[in-house]
Amino acid sequence: MTNANAASEAISPAGQTRVWDPLIRIFHWSLVIAFTANALFVEGDSKIHLWIGYFVAGAVAFRIVWGFIGTKYARFSNFPPNLKGASEQVMEIASNRKRLHMGHTPLGALMIYNLLLTLIVIAASGYLMTTDAYWGVRWMEELHEAAVFWAEFSVALHIAAVIFESLRLKVNLPKAMVTGVKEFRN
Amino acid sequence: MKKILTSTLVASSLLLGTAAASFAEGSEQAADAAKQDQIRANLTGQGYDVRKVDMEDGMYEVYAMKDGKKVQLFLDDSMKIVRTQDIN
Ligand code: HEM
Ligand code: HEM
């Protein structure tokens, strides 16, 4: 197994590395609950929908700040948007090679930026629908719903990719997002 | 690898199916054009700035402004206003 990236990082003998700090994990799982609630269960014209929506906006705002001042693997500088890296990762998958990453992979990074941006569009258009200027303006509602649809599509892909990479690299990624620790098995 | 790909694909299409189904079930639709015009004309005459006319649960749901306030009106089949709701 090639392990170029991991080699330079501190891995304990058991192959465990602490990657996600508690705030990232709380951010992730509360986002999962809030997004699912608003997308699938709560009516758009109810008060709770707005409160849950504002919570999502706040969580995303926190994440952006944390991307600059947070712990090592939480920082955007640790997973910059990198198309070259992403295409290398695709080649790597296609040719059955394995390369472990401590933090987010290049493809994962692209998905994260996509999700964060989409959530901003959802929250902004949602808020605007409640203002006098955009009250009952249909295109704003259509923008909100289109962004939600794109987010749902992206989330499906996100989850599929997490499962796929977990099996391919034999690292339980969802578990790492719960415990904060990535365990690399050989 | 094939197996991993297949199971991942199956899982994701199930998820997408759920998302698509939840979208299709939305109960709000635009009301038909003639009715919309009629409702618009009627309410505009009463001082409303009508923004949108939808159908929801067999009623016409109107989004409008009146005296600088957002309101939602529900009209039945005979164009009678059955409920008015101020949105703060
Ligand atoms: C995670 C974030 C959000 C998701 C997933 C989401 C999802 C949705 C969906 C699926 C709809 C259309 C279905 C329906 O009307 O029930 C909708 C409508 C709506 N959403 Fe959101 N939303 C989010 C955030 C927000 C925010 C932040 C606001 C406002 C502050 C907002 C305000 C609205 C409004 C006003 C409607 C239209 C309700 C109507 O008039 O029928 N949403 N949203
Ligand atoms: C059960 C469903 C989900 C699972 C199992 C899951 C799992 C994961 C995992 C394992 C990661 C870390 C990926 C890596 O190792 O690089 C991650 C990251 C992320 N996921 Fe999810 N996810 C789920 C649903 C969602 C949803 C619904 C959203 C948003 C709408 C979301 C948004 C994110 C974001 C923004 C990150 C980046 C974390 C950060 O660094 O802040 N996820 N997810």
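qc> Residues 2-24 of chain B form the longest helix (23 residues).
qc> done
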